[in-house]
Write a structure and sequence with these properties.
The complex is a heterodimer of chains A (384) and B (444). By secondary structure, chain A is α/β, with parallel strands linked by helices. Chain A has helices at 5-15, 17-28, 42-47, 76-86, 103-115, 132-153, 159-181, 192-201, 207-224, 246-253, 267-270, 280-290, 307-315, 330-345, 362-383, and strands at 32-36, 51-54, 95-99, 120-124, 234-239, 257-262, 320-326, 350-355. In chain B, the strands form two sheets. In chain B, strands 2-1-3-4 form a four-stranded parallel β-sheet, sandwiched between helices. A four-stranded parallel β-sheet of chain B has the order 6-5-7-8, sandwiched between helices. The relative contact order of chain B is 0.14. Classes of the chains: A alpha/beta (384), B alpha/beta (444). The interface between A and B is large, with 52 and 54 residues.
Chain lengths: 384, 444
């Protein structure tokens, strides 16, 4: 449990999020639309009068319910999510939006909507390359998405309301970036697991409440904390989706601080604001397609595509990088050898944890993390 | 496991046996041109071969190279080399086969001697990828061009509508076809830039005409397999796709498919099956184990024939107006996507395929296929390293069960024989065959 009251509050809320969202649904009369991945803008879902809900898994839980519909050789995260649906834990969803981020998620959409149809469902299709034709396609897809939401809720997504919603989400992004800056300190003023706990609340809390939570966290840290405690090795975590704080806690228990990240519930989404330009659809395209750094998007060959990770590692003064890849996650597995070598040449050792979305066997993972932390400690000692 | 468990396929048709003479002649011609340093493209299935032919470009298919390495049992050498570089054993083994090949080539400064093709795949001057089927195909050429070969890449990025969107809605069709058209145009511009040639539309039209003639014979040949006894099996089927991949747009390829059509037709008329006593008729789902195509002969020894396969098949989508040949490729691709959509794409991979082969058997198509091909059962190859093609088999099994057709799903791989467990697979096949015994064909 975090000693920060705001983080403890977020953890408490997150633990009961399904119940909270159902209450919100009852009180507001608004439908809840679950979503996966970061290409379809939740801002649009909100403006259409629905409640966006980022679906998360339960790492390590058995997924045998999925066996009747899905192969064992599939992303364990996808199996885990579908098992939640089959267990009835997501029955409160009125709608489902899945972005075609990767092959497995695309298949999840088909299987889910075939066997468990919902009142509203939408596969948000996403090109795999950043080309002029891909950008045009993405913008048309945004307009189809907008139209489908309007048809479902009966509420028009006006430009004015969309601009307001984007402005609100930009305020959230600004607060998150402020919190990330606290991790530039050595030791960091907020731990990786604490940061993720806050971010997870953003997946379902109404944005006004999420903003308040972030502001409270900033205020609390500002009052209570100064850079203190042991100066432990600093790491950046790169890789597949992490929607549970358990892995960051394991790293922290192994003796390192997670001070930066490059994964999809992390800095990738909050690094930049959505420009409040004249053409908001174009702004959403720039933000959710062009600027969103998921390895599923082919940005051409060469190592320049990893430069931002090196820069982030340097900016946050990390000692090493821990890769976390969920089994069968092809986009990350393809990038790993090149990224590992590039990091090494730039002075950052890398440890890869290949996991089936269970963080188990915990002992074996913990041993590898501890060995890596020892390596980082000796590296820091040598360089200081 | 020993290599002796792996068997080369016994083919049944004279025409496919003739490939042994035809293909080396073709490859020798290509090899001579390679020595004169003509541009060579490594391509993925999904790139229209007619376009390559229109640019008079030399090309090689690393995926097909993977199947050859698999059939000669050398793929593990390359796959292990890639794994040594950090590529996961979970990745597509066609990919890791190529990666390992590139790695060894780079280390040794010459094509690896393990290559089953003399001179290997040649030194590419460009990579032409396609996102058709799966995302590893984007990452594959991206990684090769980052790590091993500093050559330009063009990966085409076709997308198809999800299963619950109506592709007949003109707005939806316009949305997807615009991407296809612009993507193809980008591919043409890339080829013009890197070959220094302008695309000759008249030549492309001629090539498409010949290509589509060959496809028409191939489609009609597949239809002939509805006959009882089945006149052609899986070993001939999987072998016979090669000429259209390498010799597309050539009269020799048209002749090959015409000949195969007439041979199969003759067998139908004379009621010659591929086994003496045909007891069971099967549909095969997934990629074949290229290292052990003899597995199909093993099935035949049990009286079970594969009458139809879910992959590499072809429909009527190529019957398009060739007046504007580029638009014809767009139209062919879109028609195929729409047809597949009508057949049910809820568990399909990315199926917008501008290439020649490559339909899938959708869930709504199953009833028709079971009836028309008089099927008793389905065998599904769950390829661990190719989730793109095998993910969805459980759903297909569910749909077949509704039709009263039993399915067997077994696990292995298309290129890595280390994942083949002969005794276990055969035990399961035996048990499965027993479940079919006594059943009359579901389609009768």
């Amino acid at each position: 449990m975090s000693e920060l009251a705001t983080v403890a509050r977020a953890a408490e809320l997150n633990a009961q999020k399904e119940a909270h969202v159902q209450e919100l649904r009852r009180e507001s009369g608004r439908p809840v639309i679950g979503y996966l991945c970061c290409f379809a803008p939740p801002e649009m879902i909100r403006v259409a009068g629905a409640i966006p809900y980022r679906i998360t898994g339960r790492p390590g839980e058995p997924t045998s319910e999925a066996d009747a519909y899905m192969e064992p050789y599939g992303c364990s995260y996808v199996r885990n999510i579908f098992a939640q649906a089959l267990k009835g834990r997501l029955d409160f969803l009125d709608g489902l939006v899945i972005s075609h981020s990767c092959d497995m998620v695309q298949r999840l959409y088909g299987i889910w909507t075939y066997y468990r149809p919902l009142p509203y469902s939408r596969l948000f299709n996403v090109p795999h390359q950043v080309t002029p034709q891909a950008e045009r396609f993405f913008m048309r897809e945004l307009l189809f998405f907008k139209e489908s939401l309007e048809q479902f809720t009966g509420q028009e997504i006006t430009k004015e309301r969309l601009a307001e919603e984007i402005a609100l989400s930009n305020r959230i992004r600004a607060r998150i970036r402020e919190l990330y800056r606290l991790r530039l300190e050595h030791p960091p003023l907020i731990r990786g697991s604490e940061m993720l706990e806050l971010l997870l609340a953003g997946g379902w809390l109404p944005p006004e409440e999420f903003l308040k939570l972030l502001e409270d966290a900033l205020e609390e840290i500002g009052k209570k904390r100064a850079a203190q405690g042991p100066q432990r090795p600093r790491v950046l975590v790169w890789g597949s989706l992490l929607d549970d704080v358990a892995f960051y806690r394991m790293i922290e228990e192994a003796g390192a601080d997670v001070v930066a990240d490059d994964n999809c519930i992390g800095f990738r989404v909050f690094e930049k604001d959505i420009p409040l330009s004249e053409d908001l659809v174009e702004a959403l395209k720039d933000h959710y397609f062009i600027n969103f750094q998921c390895p599923r998007t082919d940005r051409g060959p060469g190592r320049a595509r990893f430069d931002y990770i090196i820069q982030r590692a340097q900016e946050y003064n990390v000692d090493g990088v821990i890769g976390y890849i969920i089994s069968f996650c092809d986009p990350h597995k393809f990038d790993y050898p090149d990224l590992r070598d590039y990091l090494r040449e730039s002075g950052f050792p890398m440890l890869l944890i290949d996991d089936n979305y269970s963080f188990a066997p915990a002992g074996a993972i913990q041993t590898r993390l501890q060995a890596f932390v020892e390596l980082l400690k000796s590296g820091r000692a040598l360089s200081s | 496991m020993t290599a002796s468990e792996m068997r080369r396929a016994k083919r049944h048709l004279e025409t496919t046996r003739k490939m042994k003479d035809m293909l080396p002649r073709f490859f020798m011609r290509a090899l001579e041109r390679r020595f004169s340093n003509e541009p060579l493209a490594w391509c993925m299935v999904g790139v229209p071969p007619e376009l390559l032919k229109a640019f008079d470009l030399l090309w090689e298919w690393p995926e097909n190279f993977g199947t050859i390495c698999a059939s000669r049992l050398v793929a593990p050498d390359f796959i292990k080399a890639a794994e040594g570089d950090g590529y996961s054993p979970e990745l597509c083994t066609y990919v890791t086969n190529t990666m390992g090949y590139c790695k060894l080539w780079k280390e040794r400064g010459e094509p690896p001697e393990e290559s089953p093709i003399p001179g290997g795949m040649g030194n590419p001057s460009m990579l032409l990828g396609s996102g058709f089927i799966c995302e590893p195909r984007y990452k594959w050429f991206q990684a090769i061009a980052t790590r091993y070969l500093d050559v330009p890449v063009y990966s085409s990025d076709p997308l198809a509508p999800p299963w619950d969107v109506d592709p007949h809605d003109p707005r939806i069709a316009g949305h997807y076809k615009a991407l296809l058209r612009e993507d193809l145009q980008g591919q043409v511009e890339f080829l013009e830039r890197h070959t220094g040639k302008k695309l000759d539309l008249d030549l492309l039209r001629e090539i498409l005409t010949l290509s589509h003639k060959a496809l028409a014979y191939w489609r009609d040949t597949i239809y002939l397999r509805k006959a009882i006894p089945c006149p052609m099996g899986a070993t001939d089927y999987f072998s016979a796709i090669i000429p259209q991949m390498y010799m597309v747009g050539e009269q020799e390829a048209v002749d090959f498919y015409r000949e195969i059509y007439h041979e199969v037709k003759d067998r139908v008329e004379r009621k010659i099956g591929i086994v003496e006593e045909e007891k069971y008729r099967l549909i095969w789902f997934g990629l074949p184990p290229w290292f052990n195509l003899g597995f199909f002969n093993y099935l035949e020894s049990l009286g079970a024939v594969v009458a139809i396969e879910s992959t590499y098949n072809v429909g009527d989508w190529f019957e398009v107006d060739l007046d504007d040949p580029l638009e014809a490729i767009v139209e062919r691709t879109w028609r195929r996507a729409v047809k597949m959509h009508e057949y049910g794409t809820e568990v399909m991979p990315e199926l917008c395929n501008p290439a020649v082969f490559g339909g899938f058997v959708g869930s709504r198509m199953l009833e028709e296929v079971v009836r028309e091909y008089s099927l008793n059962g389905a065998i599904m190859h769950l390829t661990r390293s190719c989730r793109a093609v095998s993910f969805g088999e459980v759903h297909t099994r569910n749909r077949l069960a509704e039709l009263g057709v039993p399915s067997l799903i077994f696990e292995s791989d298309m290129a890595d024989p280390r994942l083949w467990s002969d005794a276990q697979i055969k035990t399961r096949v035996h048990a499965f065959i027993e479940t079919m015994a006594g059943r009359s064909p579901a389609g009768s």
